[in-house]
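[Primary structure, fold]
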Amino acid sequence: MKRFPFLMTLLLFAITLSGCDKCEGEKPRARITNNGTGDASVQIKTSGGSTENLNNVPTGSTSEYRNYDAGHIVYTVTVDKVEYVEEVHMSECYEYDIVIDSSNNIVTTQKDRND
């Protein structure tokens, strides 16, 4: 019985450590999920002048995340040679999901990675 409090303390400590995956100053990131009618590409322009690209993401797939500098961001999404442009402000520890539906409508979601 003396071991029970020790084991409970050890278990609580392990649970606490496993929940410590909060973002700490990491660059924002984006990915694209393409359920549209053709390959999709995203150009990510930052206010600092750098550009990141997610090119030729096939229909029915999701790209890997791409990291970029925080600040004012311009996303240019191209599907079947049609361009969609969206401007957002992205802080550190945020991610952006760009989802293209079967009618080539684009829904974007910004999420705090500290949640």
Summary: Confidence is low (pLDDT under 50) at residues 15-19.
